[in-house]
Structures are given as structure tokens and as C-alpha cells.
Amino acid sequence: MDLTYPPEAEAFRAEVRGWLEDNLPAGWFEPGFHLSGPEREAFNAEWIEKLRQGGWICASWPTEYGGKGLSLIEQVVLNEEFARADAPMRADFFGDTLVGPTILQWGSEEQKRAFIPKILDGSIAWCQGFSEPDAGSDLASLKTRATLDGDEWVVNGQKVWTTQAQFADYIFLLARTDAEAPKHQGISYLLVPMKQPGIEVRPIKQIDASSEFNEVYFTDARCPRDNVVGGVNNGWKVAMTTLGFERGASSTTGHRRFQKELDTVVDEARRRGLTADPGVRQGLARAWSKVKLMQINGYRGLTDALHGTHHAAALGAMHKMMWSEYHQEVMDLTIDILGMEGLILTGGDGGDDAFRRSRKGGTGYPVSDLQASFFFSRSETIWGGTAEIQRNIVGERVLGLPKEPRPA
What is the fold of 247-397? Predict the structure, then answer.
């Protein structure tokens, strides 16, 4: 693990830091500075335009497609400086982080010209159509199918847990385009318009009254023949690229959200006079150690990536397994620290917590920030690959263990 950044990376750091200091609101770096309500909403709207003018939206993309062409180490530095300043990046996860880079790597020039500018300017909203009721961890068993009809694909099937589908203009989905091919080889990656007859979105109501996730039903829905990314029946390989982008260049900053949250938990323990309790102290010490391990493993991962010595799938599996299980463990401890107060609704409608800001319509169940985090942590060992699947990947690809036998 090499923690020394090259001089050109440090020069870039100074550039990013200077831009943030010049463009964030006056007083941003002073203790106790806080924006809420209309002030926060106004800042968010203005900040996106400043990011666009500064070229920081999708800055890793090639310059010919609107990015800055940043190297991996420059992407890491960019993330570090925005995290240090607690300055938000644009939160278009599906467009900026997933489908945009996938189109850049696999798409035709026509697809790049059609979609990349609209992703950059935010004029197209996206959702991801991978998971199905019987195809979650075993994604290749998906049943949604697409049949070619002249110049269009006709799509039939169902997707589930589709985040933000009710707001999306397009869905990038996997569909079976060759029923006779082996299951990993008969799949294609399609860009399907959402606003059309034949697509029904059914929100899944959650405990906090929000409907972030959806079921999506396709009944003879259509998309252009040319909206296949990476070639017909090559969708599995393309999709694995998309899932790889999900881990991005956040190797040295991924631990920060857990550290910030743990600081809040420690403050709650102090406020309740529980820092002398042996069980609480041990739990907090264990949590602190795991956050530090995440930080160290992030630097290890960065070093491996820079030198091309890592096994991306296995490293990602170990990281996902560690942080998702850690988060459930520390949130269980948090509810213990909150005591009876943790069992009642203690939040308001105007919270600034990033988790609650992202969950539209959730004000009918006013949980506090920590309670919201507790609820969300329950899902984290499932989405993005279950903890069980991550263990299989580590066992098979790192330890060389035999694959699990398939059920008869």
C-alpha cells in the first residue's frame, strides 16, 4: 500500500480545493454553518449549475464527450476534496455512474451522440431493470424477453425493486433475446423508453410511506432495434461492466459516511451517559476498528488498481460484504443506545439527512436520521449482491474452493 500521491495529483488537488473555496457559500467552512429548508433547496439548484460550469459533472469521462478525462488517481483526489469539504456531487447515480460509462465503453457512436449529452445536462432520468422476482442473486435466470419485430424490439416481462422507475425517462434493462442459448449468452442490454403504452409502474409502499422502489411490467413495450448496447446476446458481459462502475473511484472516501455516522452514535452514547458501560464501549470500539479497516482496505484497493494487481470481483465482494454487515451491526448497537426512544417516531418532516432527502414521499413516517439509517441497513446485505453471494465469490475466486453444487 503506497500512500504517496504523485506531484501531478497533488497539483490537481490544489486546483479542486481552490475551486471549492471560491464557489461554496460564504461561511461554509466555519464551525456550525448549516443550510436548511428553502436556503438548502436554493443552494442545491444553484450548485448543480456551478458543477456543470466547472466541468465536475462526469469529470472522468473523455473530453470529447464533455468530461475532463481524469485519470483514476485524479478521480480519487476529486472525491477526496469534495468529501473533505462536505460538498455534494450531482446525485444522478444511474446516469452518471452506471449507464453513462457503460454507453461510453460499449455503445456505438450513434448511441453516444444520442444519449451522452442528455445524461450530462440531466435532461434524461434513468432507472435500472436487472432484478426480477425469480432473478435476484441469480440474475442470469431472468425471464424478461425481447423479440425483434422489424426495426423494434418487443419487450415482455417484469422487473422488481426498480428504484425511481416512476420518474425515469429510460430504463437500461436486461432481456433474453435468444431462448435457446445458454442462460449467460442469450441476454441483451437494451435502452427502453419508459413513457409509452405497455409499461406499467407499480410503486412498492415501504414502512416510512415512501415508494422509492417499484415493480415494472412490460406488455409488448417497444424500443428501437439500434438501442442494444454492446451487441445482441452480449448483455451479460455489458451488465458486469455496469456493476463494476458502481464501485467507482470512491476507494479512499467510501468509509467517510460510516465515520460521520459513527461520530453521531458516539455523541448519543455520551449524551445518555453510556460511554462507561462496558458493552457499549466494546461495541463502539469494534465499530471504530471496522471503519478504520475500511479506510485501510480502500487504500489497498487503490494501490492494486493503479498497479493492475487486484482481482476486481473478489475485492469488490469482500468490500461489499464487510461494510454491509458492519452497518447492520452498528445500527443494532445504535438502537440499543437510543433505548426506548429508539422505538418511537422521533423525526420531523424537515430533516436534512441525505438518506431521507432521497426518499420522496417519506414524511408520513417521521423517523430520525439514525432510525432511518437503521431501517435502510436491513436491505444492504441484499441489494448489489447478497452477502451469501459475496462469500461464494470470495471462496471460489480467492480461496479456490469448489463451486457449490447446483440443486437437482
Answer: Butyryl-CoA Dehydrogenase, subunit A; domain 3 (1.20.140)
Q: Name residue 384's amino acid.
A: G
Q: Are strands 170-176 and 126-129 parallel, antiparallel or unpaired?
A: parallel
Instruction: Give the number of other Cβ atoms within 10 Å of residue 164's Cβ.
Output: 17
Residues paired with residue 223 on neighbouring β-strands, in sequence order: 153
DSSP state, residue 97: I
pTM of the model: 0.83
C-alpha to C-alpha distance for 132 and 206, rounded to whole angstroms? 18
Mean pLDDT of 72-80: 92
Contact residues for 91 (Cβ-Cβ < 8 A; gap 6+): 358
Say if CB 236 and CB 140 are below 8 A apart.
Answer: yes
**Which of 49-58, 64-73, 133-142, 333-342 is predicted least confidently?**
133-142
- Residues involved in catalysis: 246
Q: How far is CA 17 from CA 10, 45, 79, 100, 302, in A?
A: 10, 21, 11, 26, 21
- CATH fold of 125-234: Butyryl-CoA Dehydrogenase, subunit A; domain 2 (2.40.110)
